[in-house]
Amino acid sequence: MPNPRDRAIEIATTTAKLSLAGLSRHGLMAALAAIGVPPQQLKMRAGQLWSWIYVRGARSFADMSDVSKELRRQLEQSYSLERMHIVREQLSQDGTRKWLLRLAKRGHATSMPEIETVYIPEAERGTLCISSQIGCTLTCSFCHTGTQRLVRNLEAAEIVGQILLAKDRLGDWPEPVGERLSPSASSPGRGASERKITNVVLMGMGEPLYNFDNVREAMAIAADGNGLAFSKRRITLSTSGVVPEIVRWGDEAGTMLAVSLHAVRDELRDKLVPINRKYPIAALMAACRGYPGLCNARRITFEYVMLKDVNDSLTDAKALVKLLAGIPAKINLIPFNPWPGTAHACSDWEQIERFAEIVNRAGYASPVRTPRGRDIMAACGQLRSDSLNLTARERRAALA
What is d(CA 346, CA 175) in angstroms, rounded to the nearest whole number? Predict the structure, then answer.
């Protein structure tokens, strides 16, 4: 198998100024007020910045032709439109892209933390898988991210920033505006109806419901019809089962919901998904049944990783069907994606097909998710800021 293309990139830090890229309307108004924009102009000026940042993808204040020269000068002096720094970009044989992104230091931190973001192109859509935390506290036994300690929650702007950076790299803005990050040679700007990123899934590093407020603010920015304009039906939040926040998320954010289930018995789920010890399956199912707007058009996706001789018996399949009875649902069967040090193995393909047949016969859509990006450790359950394990020499080489 040929090696994937792996490019090391560093976007040089040119300023310590606050970046406005990723801020909410309220945040933009606060930034404008801080440099003396009169109160009666704040809403209008913030609207101008919003359009340039989220509709046209501007990366320079100089490009904002409908903003006065004096205000552009003030903005340039005080702020930037910088994105996160790309440490490494990898391209899988199947077209999947993974970015290792370096964030700014915060507080008294001694290092700059890193996260991973993945883009998965398909014939009918392009899905961007974004992170909500640096590391994770949940320690799910089959998930590589769970082996990395939690560093901190991402800010809303850092969550939105992953979308902006991916659009830069993919050439996914309607028309070129000024100087951008150099997109891939095959990714020029697009027409208005040719979006490369059509879906956003909160399935990267971290448990998004443990970062509720920042994730909610970020998804409000992503779903704003006058900006990035992702339909809430094309945004999916995946949770391991933070029961008290599930209905609240539906009420306040209203996106699609995915639940990392992976077992139908508490004694097994306690081991695979340890949060089950706090919120067992019965409580999780009750929260799912109460999810606001739940109907056949807004089904919950239940994710079920297929682990050889662990949760893949036909008895498990029948129990899964019984457990989900009455819930409008889709069941994603996920072949386990291996990672260094794991104790699990993927179920045999014949067993996965037999399992899927039982679920299908019960009337549930149960696609078997095709592993994408395995060769660059970008598949489901494989994300981790692996640069933490690099030596100083390897880090320097990656940035050369």
Answer: 44
